[in-house]
Structure prediction request, 311 residues.
Amino acid sequence: MQLSQIHPNGFISLDEIEKNVGNTPLHSFSRQLDKSNVEVFAKLEWKQMGKSVKARTAFSIIKEALLSGKLHQGKELLDATSGNTGIAYASICSKLGIQITLCIPENASKERKEILKDLGAHLIYTSRFELTEGAQKYAKTLYEQNPHRYFYADQYSNDRNWKAHYDGTAQEIFKQTQGKLTHFVSGLGTTGTFVGTVRKLKELKPSIQAIALQPDVALHGLEGWKHLESAGVPKIYDSTLANDVMVISTEEAYQLIPKVAEAHDLFLSPSSAANLLGALKVAQKIEKGVIVTVLPDNAEKYSELMKMILR
Prediction:
């Protein structure tokens, strides 16, 4: 079946949506450095549908589910999310006429909840103390109780998560840097961005160094990130891909946000600031190289937090 043939309920087709997923610009942060032989670049992932990196994952999962028949008229898409994947799912499903139910921690930002409701998503709030792990457990139980009602996307275990970056993000980075990149740096959440991008980049250029980032403590303020020692490790994660694992302080990431806003007129989310911080730390350790990271989203969905950080 062709993408253009999928037209649920008379809404727009998948191939029309695909034009607005991926192909995000690469922004240079090299002037943050005092090293002439080291360059730092980052993908501005909010420059696509759903305004976050999760558009790639959501589209990949929905596309495969529709083409395989796992998701069809009469079934709802179900998943757990901390916000961005849910918004990406809902942005796509609203255009395809697909109903969606999302399990989300009750302490997710007000902006994310409002965006999801405006997009027509049915939200089920789970305990703030159980974070995304609690949302995952609830979603899995709900699916097991109603398998004929839901297509359970299960982003933490779904191979379409990392394959979206294998097929897209990595190829874009390699082309945009003309194959000159030497290091790829990314935080770990569902781990799809890191796993898929690194897996493909190392096929294209085996010498590339991959640095995984995670919070320095279990109780952190980097939404979407996982502290793997205390949280469940996603099924799709492949620890053999990382050449090094670096820990990032929430406080340091927050401190970087106003500096980037002033120097680049870019307002980063905490997770984006943390990724950039990791890339800049790697830059300080090397004498020559081209470092690339991704900025998952901007500060648009964090207005209350930004008021505190930028005051």
In short: The domain at 54-152 is CATH 3.40.50.1100 (Rossmann fold). The first helix runs from residue 14 to 18. DSSP finds ten helices and ten strands in the chain.
